[in-house]
Each structure stands twice: as C-alpha cells, then as structure tokens.
Specification:
The chain has 193 residues and is an alpha/beta fold. The chain folds into 2 domains: 118 residues, Rossmann fold (3-Layer(aba) Sandwich), CATH 3.40.50.300; 54 residues, no CATH class. It contains 9 helices and 7 strands, in the order βαβααββααββαααβα. β3 and β4 form a beta hairpin. The longest helix is centred in the middle third of the chain and has 24 residues.
C-alpha cells in the first residue's frame, strides 16, 4: 500500500481535496485532527499545561485562543509543542495505515515540507491556491481578520521548492474541475500497482 502525503498551506483547500479522494473510497488520515485529539492524552496534557499554563484547559476543553496566542508570539513554544505532538501523530498514522486495505492512503498534513517528512511518503500531492482566495477562505472559515490570517500565512513556508519536491500539484482555484484533477491523480496512483 502506498502512503501519499497531501499538503499545502493554510486556506489552499486541502480538506476539500481530501474529501474528494474519500469519495473515491480512499481513506484519509487528518494530522491536524489527530493533533487536536492528542492534546487530551494525559501525558501530553500535562506537558501542555507546563508549557502554556493552567488556563490551557478549562472544564476539560482546550483553550485554543490562549494557546494560539502564545504559539504565534513565541516560536520556541511552537517548536516545543510540535516536538511533543509530531512524533505521536506519525506513530498514530503508521498504526492507522497498517489497518487499511486500499491501494493507497492519504495523510493530510500542512507541515510535510516544513518538518522534512517527505521520506515518510511514497508520493506527495501539493495543493496550492491564489493568495487572495486563501485569505478569504480562512477569514470566512475561522472568523479571523485579514491581519490575523496574514500573520498565520507569514508563519508558513510558501517556498516554490515545495513544488519541485511534489509528485503532483493541484491548483485549487476552480472547484468545477477539481474533482477531475483528483480523479486523474487517483487513476495514476492505482495504475502504478
């Protein structure tokens, strides 16, 4: 079974692309969802409280605003949190993938290139979209101001080298042909077996 990375920056439409692949019967592992779930693992929760303070959790709910504010202000805290979560997310993906029975699986993750995880995958699909479209998508989805979205975009690596390292690049600026593009990639991935 092939392990395919699905990546791209904030607001490019990775989830939309992932849902299309799911409609083809391909299982998708959402790294961001797994990271959020792991925040409630007792060992990680203890370390998150040490890192971000007692107010990180309230009534067994994660205080996302509190943590996000610190992550964007303090790069060292971001690095520490990623060091806690990323190895565990990779472990969970490996366990999950070993239980699938399809020609390939997708791992949707925004940070494949930023964390040098290319070697974990047989192929990589990069999703891209125009900057103004990305900003409007994230503003609408996350109820953020333009300045807040721009700050998040600035924190991500948008290097064109990512295109060179990708096996497939999807330009997600026209939803009408997105499914056809995904179907073409799906056909190529299943024909290689």
């Amino acid at each position: 079974m092939l392990k395919i990375g699905l990546t791209g920056g904030i607001g490019v439409g990775k989830t939309t692309v992932a849902k299309i692949f799911e409609s083809f019967g391909i299982p998708v592992f959402y790294s961001d969802v797994e990271s959020k779930n792991l925040m409630f693992d007792s060992q990680i929760k203890t370390q998150v409280i040490e890192l971000f303070g007692e107010e990180s959790y309230s009534l067994d709910q994660l205080n996302r605003k509190h943590i996000a504010a610190q992550l964007f202000e303090d790069p060292q805290k971001r690095t520490s949190l990623e060091a806690l979560l990323h190895p565990r997310v990779r472990q969970e993906f490996q366990k999950w993938a070993s239980n699938q029975n399809t020609p390939y699986v997708l791992n949707e993750s925004a940070l494949i290139f930023e964390k040098n995880l290319e070697s974990y995958f047989d192929k990589i699909i990069l999703v891209k979209a125009p900057l103004d479209l990305r900003i409007s998508r994230v503003m609408e989805r996350d109820k953020l101001t333009k300045a807040e979205v721009q700050a998040r975009l600035a924190a991500q690596d948008n290097s064109s080298k990512n295109e060179d390292l990708s096996d497939f690049v999807i330009y997600n600026d026209n939803l009408s042909n997105l499914k056809l593009i995904c179907k073409d990639i799906h056909n190529k991935l299943t024909q290689k077996l």
